[in-house]
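#structure-requests
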Amino acid sequence: MVHKSISTVLLVGLSQLSVAVWAANQAPEVRGQSETIRQAGKHQSWVWGQDPEGQTLTFEIVKPARHGKVTLDPKLGRYTYEPSQSTDYDEFSFRVFDGQQWSASAPVQLNFTVKQTNKPTTHTKQPEQPTNPKHTNNTNNSNNQAPEARGQAEQLTSFAPHHSHVWAQDKDRDQMTFQVVQAPKHGKLKLDRKTGRYTYTPQSNQANYDEFKFQVSDGQSTSKIATVQLMLNYVDRKPTQPVSPTTPTTNNPNTPKQPTTPVAKKPTTKQPTEPKQPTVGNKSPNKPSTPTTKTPEKPIDQYRSKDDFSANVKEVLSNDFFSPTFNHGATNRLHDVALAIDFLARNGDTTDGDLDKLLYYIRAFNYYGNMKEIPVADLALLNNALLAVTQMSDFYTNQESAAAVQEGYVVALSGLFRQARIAEQLLSHIDVVAQLLTHFQQDGISKIKRHADSIFETLNIVDELGYHSKNMRETAYKSVKEKVKQANLAERVAKLGGSEQGLWQGKDAFVLFNAIEALGNLYLRDDSDWNKQLDNYAANLVRQYQHYADQEELKSNFYVYYVNKTRYYDRNTTAEEACEKDFSGLCHIYKVDEILPVEHTCSSTLKVKAQELTTAQLGYICSELKDMEATFHQKFTSSTKQQPVADDYNSNLELVIFDSPDDWHKYGGVLFQVSTDNGGIYIEGDPSKKGNQARFYAYERHDLSEWQVWNLRHEYVHYLDSRFNQYGRFGHHPLQLTTWWAEGLAEYMAHGKSNKRGMSVMQRYTPARRPGFTDIAQTSYDQGDDMVYRWSYLLHWYLDENTPTQYLDLASALREKDSAIYKERLGKLGEHFGDKFTTWRDSKLTQSSPMIAADLYVASDLQAATISHKRDSLAHSPLQQRRYSTARPPRRN
């Protein structure tokens, strides 16, 4: 609608001005992509288009697919492809229209996975993979797998030699030879037969497209032919004579030409079909009435040296980016980092510290960024960059640098595995994970301390691939689940657990325990043959380690992380019955009273169970929480009348205190099936059920200047808040509107107006990056600790100090079963006090005296209070968690 009003009003009434408007417009951009998909069923994904001025785009197909049917949503750029015949490759082309100009066309290459036969799956022992990827071929190897080559699409913007590499892999790790099958028509090509690197030198700057074909050989088999498509969009192209624009008609949208320098004449009344709503997540503002001189930032296509790294990449390399204050959402940030990773991977140096840091940045982005907002083309770019990392010659070696790169790779991969949009492109990574599991079984791996982390993170990836993870229940991951079985991940996990790494450096069982847990996560509800294999793998690991010093710990982990987890989905057998029948002598069930013998009653509403507390310490705990309860009721009496919310039977709280963080990590999960990857948890359960027991789990800190129970006051406020302020169980009211309330209130009540550390953290934000009232009120648990705890704390302080009546009215609204009243009151508060909060916020932060950096983040505090805020949204509510943490690797000195 915006475009139509411009064309019909400005072009008719102000013909000269209309020329200026047209001249200011910049054509939209598209980018080709290559995807790997299944041969059967529908495949859905997105094409990539962008307009420099953020205008609404219309997507259309230019060249249809040859071997299937493809439909493209003209507004969203989402396409559906359904193959009509058996083939190993198909492609289609598309372009986009911004209301004035068409982009160039770009191809979408569709590479099909190998069609599966109906042969039964065998589980014979696979040959050991050599550790040196440069070994010579064994010509008598009847199990050889043909190498795989994959096509790609690249964009050239300069009439200069273009350097890149083609993509191929050999699952047997055989040395590959690259060869050109069909040379390009409009340029010269030089392809390195050993590395796959190529140089394309254009010879005609008037050509718009070129391509070449290649294949690879491993000495025994040859891959299928793959095509590299080159979009020649030279910015230094010799100009051609401008022509008058042709306005496309609505009857034939496939024929419009790109206008260049239109003349001021009355346009035709027919306009190209345009979407009515903005696409690609951008609202479509009106075109400027005068030319703009601002040059939009365009994504970079490729790096040829570190000097070419963009400001986005250089900023990552020169700053502390593992912080919410770092601008993770900068335009093209992830795109540029992916290109830099790809460049460094092609350089082949695992000792390059920049590669390690950029891979570590992807971990930070997984934590603070939002992968859901990243265009699918950039996800594919990151996917290919990570595959390039796995092709480095030293990737599968026993070196400190290789271990660091392995760890960075699998952690970065974990973020991609959660993106259903590119699920089909992730299949190749499962082969890499399988190979890593085999690589880690080598003797001497534990001599490299960094391998402890790379093994731990790789086993975490197996958990991501487990059939009970949220992702694996989605239809898009069907082929991924099939690939997990084909790659024999379960057998490889079991072998790793049974290798010398099972007891890391002969004493630490973190690999063994995580291997047992990973096997439990691979359990299937309706596949008895598969599950029987898993049972045998897990049980044999326990039997193999009869020499392990702490048999109770081993057998308890087996019971909780394997038996209890897998039998939860078995309708015919309980975990206890399985221990007696299937796993006799292999289970140990810790008794709560055995680990927590201390019992103490503070009051009718508070009782304590602990490992070891003195009478004085128990008295201190009771006194602290009594004072906290009195302060809470003093503040909210007018809204609560000190009466619990309706339908709440959590009449008392059980405070469970472990002797140390290590004991919390060791016993918390096996005793109570709760996550221990945090600084303590309050689990409400279902307060509407009579007999439900609310519990707060905590641990002692003996390493501080003064003894304390960590987060004691904070977690107790959660109990009081859920009992007297918030109706229903955790999550009854929308979490996107109550996270700030729950966590901010716990911080505000625990610290009052003296929270020096929290204030110092917030002072590090520039005023422009400080969140406003609505930003905080709509925060969620995946937005980072600062938003969840610090800024939420500050908003509570403001409301309590400046609008106490409305603050208590908001608390009263939370007591209602219906969330509508709370939503309305919260919205009005934001409207009336949003600007005033901003002024007050900046004033408070200016007045506060900051802590020095050395005191701001104390290492022992960070280690003990490693709060995984992305799990907090789960950790407060369930009666029992199905996914909770097990043993972590030892810390590196």
